[in-house]
Design goal:
alpha/beta; 4 domains; Rossmann fold; seven-stranded mixed beta sheet; about 650 residues; 17 helices
Length: about 650
């Protein structure tokens, strides 16, 4: 400040001399001197402008972009960086973070995690040396996260992994956060599922010696033993150039003992899993195959495409493999469906769960950066990093959570996300939900008649140290026959459609309430008797024909001028979302939404823009019901299924 005042006074004196002096040489000197003083006076402003343009907020992504596992590594790395960039593009388009753009730079760890020459260590140190990044998103393999995590902790750089499951990634490292459940949850759930749902007491384990594979196998084994299950066989192998011969020997031994082996846990990443599954299926071993999240990646399901049997019969190798997965899009919320559509539109590729988790990780990090109110300069980078870490550590409950594509994102005291895996099964190369899932019970007060629920009704399971709801999954599909009598003055229309349910269990999924029906009682009678009903094994199928008037634009949201939403929205009358969820029958719906022109006549004055089918949660007051007196805030949640047809007005009508 004193320097600027002195420079201004000096400039004033110089300007007086400039007007008084007649010498051309002297005038040139004084003009030059004035320019120099102006730069001194206005340098802070110039510097800030330059920093605003030249010093964006920088985030590092580190993960597998290449390496000896190039097919899997490149796929996983590309999928995640694309998702992160997709979110950052949205942030920058809306003005960035406090006016600053956010830039992403990638570092390739090649999934090479251990040893003095590990790429994970080398690239993590490159991030440190660069000294421009306020935070890190990555790594992918748990071993790489552990290696990199030591460096981030030492140099004070906050990091979030969207996919590393081993417990040690975050434990003891308050600079590392995990936006996904850990492998302990996956191992526990798989063991419980084999025992309680499959009804099996024998298991065999094959695992690699990576941090993730060995840890998943160990957690599964501990849980299986606690459940009284028998471990019939256990094999392991190292990831090296002779891996294929090692796993072939293992599969040959498995073939000899297949009848007594029970369910087979393959605790590996996707790359190794492709080799194992191909050998097992080629040798016609019929045992149940189960695995963790690595088998739900694109790299796994697409890893068989080059083989003749897979080309002739897509899904030949993956069919009936059960895997834990962080996300199933068919059972996901509306935000997940919107993300899926955006990702496909930009990259012309179907995203997997790793993309959704990377997208949410970027979302959480951006919110933390905004909330931390960082300075965003090179001089403040150490302080900025500390502020970001503290803000992330403050996301500890659902009220502070960031709601994203994967649900509510927040952390426990160890930096782990409060999420739980789902179980999916492959059908025709598509990973779909099984008929039974589980959900963490946040408070036992939320469960009416808790002892009865766990002992007699078996609606509640205990898995490890958690109590879980046993949740029935109902596959639901619809085929719209006709939309007619559209009256946008009163926001009503007539809808004629088929609705079906596919499920297992002793309950009535068709006992639903259409919350946007004009005359709901008339629709209720149409659900008394199905037009078709089949039972195949334990699976029940019911088809109904529904015709009635419905209300448009029923859900609360901002609509673009001229746009309207038709369709139906329903939930079960009695069973809440802890006991039942409706999911999109993605396989059964194939072709059911493709011929829009046939269901809405152009003479109506409206045309169809988009068809969307997704689940959500419907919240309503318990109204003093005795079963829900202890439920938090007196709100009962039901699984809500939304079948939406977006329309806009035909120009010229």
């Amino acid at each position: 400040m004193h320097t600027c005042v002195f420079a201004l006074n000096l400039m004033a004196v110089t300007l007086r001399l400039l007007f008084l002096k007649k010498s051309t040489v002297m005038k040139k000197f004084l003009i030059f001197f004035c320019s120099f003083l102006a730069i001194i006076i206005f340098w802070p402003v110039i510097q800030n402008l330059l920093q605003g343009e030249e010093q964006p907020i920088r985030i590092a992504f580190i993960g597998p972009m290449s390496g000896y596992m190039s097919e899997e590594g490149k796929t996983a790395g590309q999928v995640m960086t694309r998702a992160v960039q997709l979110y950052l593009d949205e942030v920058n388009k809306s003005g960035g973070i406090n006016g600053k753009k956010v830039e992403l730079e990638t570092f390739d760890d090649q999934n090479h995690c251990t040893g003095d020459k590990a790429k994970a260590k080398e690239e993590a140190l490159n991030i440190v040396r660069d000294n421009r990044f306020v935070a890190v998103i990555g790594h992918w393999y748990s071993g790489c996260s552990i290696t990199g995590g030591k460096i981030y902790k030492k140099y004070g750089i906050p990091a979030i992994t969207p996919g590393s499951l081993k417990k040690e990634v975050t434990y003891g490292n308050n600079w590392y956060f995990r936006n996904i459940y850990n492998a302990s949850a996956s191992g526990q759930f798989l063991a419980y599922y084999v025992n309680k749902v499959f009804g099996l007491n024998q298991v065999s384990i094959i695992h690699d010696n990576t941090g993730y594979g060995a840890y998943l196998a160990d957690e599964f084994k501990k849980s299986a033993t606690q459940l009284g299950m028998e471990i019939k066989n256990q094999w392991n192998f190292h990831n090296h150039e002779n891996m294929n011969s090692d796993i072939e020997n293992i599969v040959n031994q498995l073939k000899e003992n297949a009848q007594e082996a029970g369910a087979i846990l393959l605790a590996t990443q996707a790359y190794e899993g492709v080799a194992l599954v191909k050998l097992i299926k080629d040798k016609n071993i019929q045992n149940h195959i189960i695995s963790g999240a690595g088998f739900s990646e694109q790299a796994f399901k697409n890893g068989f495409d080059k083989f003749p049997r897979e080309k002739a019969n897509p899904g030949y190798y993956t069919n009936d493999i059960y895997v834990t997965t962080p996300l199933l899009f068919e059972a996901a919320n509306e935000k997940a469906q919107q993300f899926r559509e955006k990702y496909q539109a930009v990259y012309d590729q179907e995203p997997d769960w790793s993309a959704a988790y990377a997208y949410d990780t970027a979302m959480v990090l951006v919110k933390a950066i905004k909330k931390a109110r960082i300075t965003g300069t090179q001089e403040s980078i150490a302080t900025d990093r500390q502020k970001i870490r503290q803000t992330l550590a403050g996301f500890t409950n659902i009220h502070e959570a960031v709601e994203g594509t994967t649900g509510f994102n927040y952390f426990d005291d160890n930096g782990d996300a409060q999420k739980w895996p789902m179980i999916g099964v492959y059908k025709n190369k598509v990973l779909i939900s099984t008929f039974t899932q589980s959900q963490v019970i946040r408070s036992l007060n939320d469960v009416p008649n808790f002892e009865k629920a766990i002992v007699e009704e078996k609606r509640v399971w205990r898995i490890g140290d958690k109590y879980m709801y046993k949740t029935n999954v109902v596959y639901t599909g619809a085929k719209i026959k006709e939309i007619s009598e559209v009256d946008m003055n009163n926001l009503t229309y007539k809808l004629d459609f088929h609705l079906w349910f596919r499920f297992q269990g002793d309950f009535n999924p068709q006992d639903i309430e259409f919350i946007n029906a004009v005359e709901p009682e008339k629709l209720k009678t149409q659900l008394d008797k199905p037009v078709d009903e089949i039972q195949k094994g334990q699976t029940i199928y019911r088809l109904y024909h529904i015709e009635g008037r419905f209300k448009a634009d029923f859900l609360s949201r901002d609509y673009k001028f001229g746009d309207h939403v038709l369709g139906v929205h329903f939930h079960h009358r009695y069973l809440n979302s802890n006991n039942l969820i409706y999911v999109n029958d993605s396989i059964g719906m194939r072709g059911a939404d493709g011929k829009f022109a046939q269901i809405l006549s152009p003479t109506s004055g409206w045309q169809i823009k988009q068809f969307r089918f997704f689940r959500d949660i419907h919240r309503k007051s318990s109204l003093g019901h005795p079963d829900y007196l202890s439920v938090q805030e007196g709100i009962v949640k039901h699984s809500l299924l939304n079948i939406e047809v977006w329309v806009d007005e035909v120009i010229g009508k």
